[in-house]
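Final report, closing paragraph on structural work. Over the funding period we assembled a curated collection of sequence-structure pairs, and we close with a single example.
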Amino acid sequence: MRLTSLIITALLAPLGGLAAPLAADSIVTLEARQGNCPPKPKPCVRIVPDPTPQEYKARFEQFAEAFIYKKNITRAFEFITQDYINHNPMAQNGFDSAWGILCGIWNNQNLTPLRTLYQHPMGRVNYRSGFGTIIDRFRWEGGCIAEHWDSGEKWPTNTTADPAL
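Its predicted structure, as stored:
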């Protein structure tokens, strides 16, 4: 009986770490555990003067191409600011937190891109993954992604041409 208890404890002990919440300073540890993160880019630095709406749209298209079509997480994160605000209740704010969540898993995701939309200053990507059908909404500021929503997002009903573009 004691031997069985020891074996079960030895097998289950490593799983206890998965249930523990992560502190902001443990992201490096998470990356190290994942072990398959691509090179981490530098965060996007806001552009001054502010880009034109057309330049924003071009930057959004580059981001969407990298993020959901090529799954190049390093290139996609070149558009995200250090002080990025994440409205997902399961994630913390900041570039480093988002990188720690996605870097080790993104390239292995089976994604089916569905559509993209840029309506200044918001960009949206819609795709299917192992998590279901996802709509990510990004607010752009200074040519960079400054804010993100993905919980309960709906595709806009008005997708006519943006007058700013």
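Residues 2-19 form the longest helix (18 residues). Strands lie at 80-86, 112-119, 122-129, 132-141, 144-149. We thank the funder for supporting this effort.
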